[in-house]
Amino acid sequence: MSGHGHHHVSDLGTRRLAWAVAINLLLTAAQVIGGVLSGSLSLVADALHNFSDAAGLLLALVARRISKRPADEHRTFGYGLAEVVGGLINLTSIMVIAGYLLIEAITRMFDRPEVDGWMMVIVAGIALVVDTATAVLTYSMSKESVNIKAAFLHNIADALASVAVIVTGTLIILFDWYWSDIVTTFSISVYIVWISWSPFKRCVRILMQSTPDDLSIQSIASTIRDVPGVESISHLHVWSIDESTVALELRIESGNCTSLLEADDFRQRIKELIRVHYEIQHATIEIVPAGSLSGQPLIAAHEKVSDPQPRQEQ
Questions:
Q1: For position 309, what pLDDT does the model report?
Q2: Which residues form the domain of 260?
Q3: Which has more confidence, 248 or 262?
Q4: In-domain check, residue 300
Q5: Are residues 60 and 140 in the same domain?
Q6: 234, 248, 222: which is closest to 288 by C-alpha?
Q7: Is the pLDDT assigned to residue 310 strictly greater than 60?
Q8: d(Cα 293, Cα 254) in Å, to the nearest integer?
Q9: Last residue of a domain, one of 207, 228, 254
Q10: Is residue 308, in this structure, part of any structural domain at all?
Q11: How far apart are the first and last CA of the chain?
Q12: Residues 156 and 281 reside in one and the same domain
């Protein structure tokens, strides 16, 4: 594909995301108003769910813009973590609000207000149409992006939640089962927390520079130790720079490298090995003479490093 064609596809994807964000925000506002007017807490809970979709899509839209910014002297690894920080803020706020809805639902068990079933059904029906439209907008893009695929699946789940609200409104209209609104609120709130928990943990792990879940320090160390010429290794660190890039830092003791050229060739072979086996794209490897790492731990404790000069506030 030519550069012009790629640019056209990128702009089309951005426009689709922008439309998806806009209609989800309008839907959220309509659901909140409908929930307040009808007295339905489950409708407000579904509005929260749709707002989480809009926020997630907005983050994806912003990430497409930020990802084009090159690394600079202040962000030497680039701006990929901005999406992680935004996701953590978004997920935290969503789970806090879901907790509030759970408490409100418990309160309503003792004070049951009247609920307008017809308002619930009408607004939830509109939500179902919008959720379906959003899924259609993001379906083709979901094949190429994990983040947008998650947003697509989230919209499918939203459609199911809207169906649940429609069923609840119908039960209220036909049988005056007002308690079903409380049950549906519980279900939607618990579901929101459940689907948010995994990405929430992922955001925290990335920001804490944890080893990615799918990688094992011991496995990486074993693979490197099997390379001829490696006598011992230490200070092995593996962490995520952003959602898609993994970094590694390592010291290797070798007695086979008698020149800088041999050391560099040895280092490149190790880098290629871990790239092929573990898809680690960014590796910093220090080759030291035999005997230098005697007694050094595989995973070193963090050492306090003093700055020779005080940092200036930006």
A1: 44
A2: 217-288
A3: 248
A4: no
A5: yes
A6: 234
A7: no
A8: 10
A9: 207
A10: no
A11: 42
A12: no
